UniProtKB/TrEMBL annotation:
Keywords: Cell membrane, Membrane, Transmembrane, Transmembrane helix, Transport. The chain crosses the membrane at residues 38-61, 107-128, 140-160, 172-193, 214-239, 275-298. It is found in: Cell membrane. It comes from Streptomyces edwardsiae. It is a multi-pass membrane protein. Residues 1-33 are annotated as: Disordered. This is Carbohydrate ABC transporter permease. Residues 103-298 form the ABC transmembrane type-1 domain.
Amino acid sequence: MSTPLTTASPAAPAKVPGRGAPKLRTTRRRTAGKPRRSVLLTVLTSLIVLYTVVPLVWLVINATKTQTGLADSSGMWFADDFALWDNIRDTFTYHDGVFGRWLLNTLLYVVLGAGGATFLAVLGGYALAKFDFPGKRGVFATVIGAVAVPGTALAVPTFLMFSKMGLTDTPWAVIIPSLVSPFGLYLMWVFATEAIPTELLEAARIDGAGEARTFFTVALPLLAPGIVTVLLFTTVATWNNYFLPLIMLKDPDWYPLTLGLSAWNSQAETIGGEVIFNLVITGSLLTILPLIVAFLLLQKYWQSGLAAGSVKE
């Protein structure tokens, strides 16, 4: 009888006395906390920083110069005479202190327009995120479409509508359009969906809380980072709004800062107009300071609002 052939497995290498186990090659693993450095990304970021910082540095330097110093010195270095405090005083006193009136007008438009837009965005975003109702998909499509439409495309139809209602050349012509913020509504919709657990709302309702109490005592504190984020976006948009006041307002007493400074800058192009570029530059510096302070004070809330929902638990 023939026996089946068997193949012997190769014997394991004997361990040589005095020698350690064979060394295995190890590869370094990158940890998630330490991403690989990119030279291209560093260069691009540096260019963006320069593009952002250089105009601000130019503005600060030239706000310290007189009208003569602006023409006789380099734009990126100080002149012999330091006139920052004189320029600030002259900015607020020029033309019977109209700059102060423009500043108050801008604050009025921001408080009523941006504040109202944020409040409506919070209410609408919470309702769209936590309630089901007929036509919700249509509302979603409308909001997305409104976000894609630039504001300048709606300026002329808005002017014609307000003109027939007799609201042009009044503060309401700037405040009422500012109350509509499709991007703010969409942002609050997304934020409320992730930030407010539905079980928490149901528990509040079981305890006997009405919808208004549930919103103001349970949901609103959880929406604080998103509210600050939307408030910053709407504030910047209203503060820097130029085209809408340009077509809506004729009375200089109702101008915002953007339109008023543009009028001062245009004086140099008119016959017999006074050239006050030093006041225009100083006024521009004073105009952006409140926005810088607002971003610095609300930075932690703004960053947390942008990062909300980015990590799935």
